[in-house]
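dude i think i finally got it to work??
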Amino acid sequence: MKWTVLIIALMIMLCSNASGQMNPYSSNAAGGAPTPTAPSSAESLGLQVPTDVTGSQQAPSAQESTQTLMSANQDAAYASAPAQSLASTTNAVYNRMIVPTGGFAPNNLYISYAPRTVASCNLYANLPLWMQTTGRGNIWFYEWYPSGMLDTQYAGYVNFPGWFKRWFFADTPGWHVLQYYCGGWSNYAYIYVSGPGGYWINPNPDRNPVPYPYPNWDSPITYTYPPTGHTYYSYKWTSSSGI
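look at this
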């Protein structure tokens, strides 16, 4: 009888460890932000790294680089899509909508162009992100790093549903998972960043970091979330702990 109990306990422990390894992502959002459901890893979803790697040619304009959220429209979001993207089996995989388990995602998030949700780019590249909201409210943006760390940013308040744009900066090699909240959750978007290990900007640096000297932002852009008084910074100057 004792051996049976021990075997059952061991099986439960092994299952718990296995489930933890399948979902290594944190769900600890910064103060004031809705708590997200940690996404499934790209590996557990069977996602392959896209072969059409985006380089570093795209970049925000001088005006867009000072904003974390910009008004957009559907035409702009679809404008860069290849003519064959809707008919191609390969692109159908890249357009896959992945939503929180057992959840409802009324908002849409696309990478580079709509309706793409899985993409790849080189280290230090910039990719436009297209957000289609179904309501108004505060927008919280979430980014899970390859390490599992969650970076949370307050992007501002929108007064109407519609299309909005922001930029992704590839600062760490590996899979990044993105999502946002605006009166409801969006789907997850997956970006694989290719680059040399050991030469990227640490999103959660030590006291005296010596990051790769590109890019060099002179100062962060700050935004304050009124209900809690928390201050958030653009370009990954924050971590999930709000530091």
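The mean pLDDT is 77.
im so relieved honestly
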